[in-house]
Structures are given as structure tokens and as C-alpha cells.
């Protein structure tokens, strides 16, 4: 491979802001694997956000990209998997598997798509120092008439349209909106773009915690919600505490610590079969009965309010943010029914630019 921009390349990133900034190019924020594709003739490398190759995990995309991309180019985009008209990150995560036979089977059962939104090189020319508007023109020319599973990401310079996308497209599993300055040059690993993500709040049960890597202080709180049958399901974690607060939380939660973990609603987390019918914390592992440094079981009696962006099935897609304790809420009252559901919107309509 001999391209003007050689792998590995770390993608340009975005910083979080609360509102959509004016005067920029706007795109949907795709909830998938960020990927930079290098193609030189029959050679093709799909690089991840860390720079490590993803090529072996998406064989169906290798074939599709070789058929649909120009002979020599470097394109930035997102790998996604859709199910029932919306993005499905769980199915996407299943593709990172050491067994080639399983990867091949999943590539046929749940094929991935590649959504292109930037270009770093075209032929023998590097576009890294070319303004965004010119790079977008080059990308549109490059992908004129492209067919699935390769897509050109819709974009707009109208802030009103971007706000409309932000409200409507969440139902297709999208993560928010990305705003890019029109004169932006491509700078790997630099946070020069802006992302606006959905955020909501929920009251959840604190049912345990994990220690922080720095020592015997709280790293994250384990959160639960009751399903319709009244069973407490693990829905995620909240973290990002200061060092002082991590130490305080250990003392604060000590009265709730369970001496016998077998009394905990998630005691079966160590049994592999239990994960098939319930949301439990951690990967299947042998329950030793000793002090377990992976997570500490608490009586599920305290409620806290957390901020979250959106749900992936029955769990928080990303780490939730602690807001405050809710001593006025009973743990039994914390259920899925309080969560706001986005209006459904079909992913193909988003990609085609319908109603945009």
C-alpha cells in the first residue's frame, strides 16, 4: 500500500456541547464503530479509532468497499448494524470475536454498513489540509450513486434542519448531532468538532459498586431498574467521581454492604445461564463467596438520579452521570416505565435523506 495518507490514522474527534452551534456543517451522530478505510487497488485496511485494524471482523464490508470506493482513497466513516429499522450496537459488538467462523456467520446473519462522512485522501492527493467544504465536495463526487451497504452520510448547513434531525432521528438509534466548522482541516485525534447528545434523567436503584483501579475506593456505582415483574435488572453504571468523593462513597455505602452476597438480587451473576433471562452485572465468573474486588454487593435500598443519553435495549448505552441522591424515592418505584421513549424512525429514511 502506497497512499498519501498511510495507516494507521486516528480519526478527528468531537467535544461535547449543550446546544447546536450556528454556522457549521451538521450531520447525524452515528452510534457504531468509527472507522477509517484505506484503499490502494486490491489492498484495503479498515482502521479503528485506536488505529488497530477492524478488517477481519467485517469481511462483507471489505468486498463492498472494494466494489464501491475509488481505487485509491482514504475515507472516514462509521460501521453500523441495523435491526428492525434502527441501529443495534449490541449486534455490532458481537462481531469482535476471535473465531473467524463466527465472524463469517454473523457477517451473513447481520451484515454491517459503512457510512462515509469525510475523506482524507483522493488518488495521489492528501486532503488533510483542505477545508471541510472542499473535502465534502470531493466525497460527494467520489460516492455519486453509491449503493448499500456503503452510504454517504446526509449533511446540512441549516441549523434548523439539524435541530429537527436531533429531535426526530433518535428513534432510528442515532446518538445526536455533530457540528463541524466549514473551514475545518483534518487533524487526527484532535477534538475540533462538536457533538450534541440527548440527555435525560432517571431515578435508579444503587445495588452495588466496583472499586476504582487506583485502590479501595468507589470506581462506579451499579444501577438497577425493576421490570414489569418486579425483578431488579442491571441497567448500567455511573462514574466520574472526584478522588475525594470516591473515598467518601465507600464509607457512605458501608451500612448497605451485604455480608452474604447470596442474598443479593444479582447473586446469580456468576451463573452463565442466568444471563440469558436477566440483566446482571459483569461477565459470567465463579462466585467465590469471599470478598470480591470486582464488585461489592449492596442492599438495593438507596435511589439516585442519573443523567443518561439513550437506552440500548434494556440498559443505558453509555456510562450514566450521577446527579443526586433521592431519599424521597422508594427503590420499588424505580422502573422502566419512567424512561422516555423516542419516536420510532426508520434508519433507511435517515440515510436516504427522506423528510430532510
Automatic annotation (TrEMBL):
MF term (GO), any: DNA ligase (ATP) activity
Highest taxon listed in the record's lineage: Bacteria
DNA ligase ATP-dependent C-terminal domain: residues covered: 216-329
Domain spans labelled ATP-dependent DNA ligase family profile: 11-197
EC class (word): ligase
Any Pfam family the entry gives: DNA_ligase_A_M
SUPFAM superfamilies the record matches: DNA ligase/mRNA capping enzyme, catalytic domain (SSF56091), Nucleic acid-binding proteins (SSF50249)
Enzyme Commission no: 6.5.1.1
Catalytic activity: ATP + (deoxyribonucleotide)n-3'-hydroxyl + 5'-phospho-(deoxyribonucleotide)m = (deoxyribonucleotide)n+m + AMP + diphosphate
Keywords: Ligase
NCBIfam families documented for this protein: PRK08224.1
Family annotation (PANTHER family): DNA LIGASE 1 (PTHR45674:SF4), DNA LIGASE 1/3 FAMILY MEMBER (PTHR45674)
Family: Belongs to the ATP-dependent DNA ligase family.
UniProt name for this protein: DNA ligase (ATP)
Amino acid at each position: 500500500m502506497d497512499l498519501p495518507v498511510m495507516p494507521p490514522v486516528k480519526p478527528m474527534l468531537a467535544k461535547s456541547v449543550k446546544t447546536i452551534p450556528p454556522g457549521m456543517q451538521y450531520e447525524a451522530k452515528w452510534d457504531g464503530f468509527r472507522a477509517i478505510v484505506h484503499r490502494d487497488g486490491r489492498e484495503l485496511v479498515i482502521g479503528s479509532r485506536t488505529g488497530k485494524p477492524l478488517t477481519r471482523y467485517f469481511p462483507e464490508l471489505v468486498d463492498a468497499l472494494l466494489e464501491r470506493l475509488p481505487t485509491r482513497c482514504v475515507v472516514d466513516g462509521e460501521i453500523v448494524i441495523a435491526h428492525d429499522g434502527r441501529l443495534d450496537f449490541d449486534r455490532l459488538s458481537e462481531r469482535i470475536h476471535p473465531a473467524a467462523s463466527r465472524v463469517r456467520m454473523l457477517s451473513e446473519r447481520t451484515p454491517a454498513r459503512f457510512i462515509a462522512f469525510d475523506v482524507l485522501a483522493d488518488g495521489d492527493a492528501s486532503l488533510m489540509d483542505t477545508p471541510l467544504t472542499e473535502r465534502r465536495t470531493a466525497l460527494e463526487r467520489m460516492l455519486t450513486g453509491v449503493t448499500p451497504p456503503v452510504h454517504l452520510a446526509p449533511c446540512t448547513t441549516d441549523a434548523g434542519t439539524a435541530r429537527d434531525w436531533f429531535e426526530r432521528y433518535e428513534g432510528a438509534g442515532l446518538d445526536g448531532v455533530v457540528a463541524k466548522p466549514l473551514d475545518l482541516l483534518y487533524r487526527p485525534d484532535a477534538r475540533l468538532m462538536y457533538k450534541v447528545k440527548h440527555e435525560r434523567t432517571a431515578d435508579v436503584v444503587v445495588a452495588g459498586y466496583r472499586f476504582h483501579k487506583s485502590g479501595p475506593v468507589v470506581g462506579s456505582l451499579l444501577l438497577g431498574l425493576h421490570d414489569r415483574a418486579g425483578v431488579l435488572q442491571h441497567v448500567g453504571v455511573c462514574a466520574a467521581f472526584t478522588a475525594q468523593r470516591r473515598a467518601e462513597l465507600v464509607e457512605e455505602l458501608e451500612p448497605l454492604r451485604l455480608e452474604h452476597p447470596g442474598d443479593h438480587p444479582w447473586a446469580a451473576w456468576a451463573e452463565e445461564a442466568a444471563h440469558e433471562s436477566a440483566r446482571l452485572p459483569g461477565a459470567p465468573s465463579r462466585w467465590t463467596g469471599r470478598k470480591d474486588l470486582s464488585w461489592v454487593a449492596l442492599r438495593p435500598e438507596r435511589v439516585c438520579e442519573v443523567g443518561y443519553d439513550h437506552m440500548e435495549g434494556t440498559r443505558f448505552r453509555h456510562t450514566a452521570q450521577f446527579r443526586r441522591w433521592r431519599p424521597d424515592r422508594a427503590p420499588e418505584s424505580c422502573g422502566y416505565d419512567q424512561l422516555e421513549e423516542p419516536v420510532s424512525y426508520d434508519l433507511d429514511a435517515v440515510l436516504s435523506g427522506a423528510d430532510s
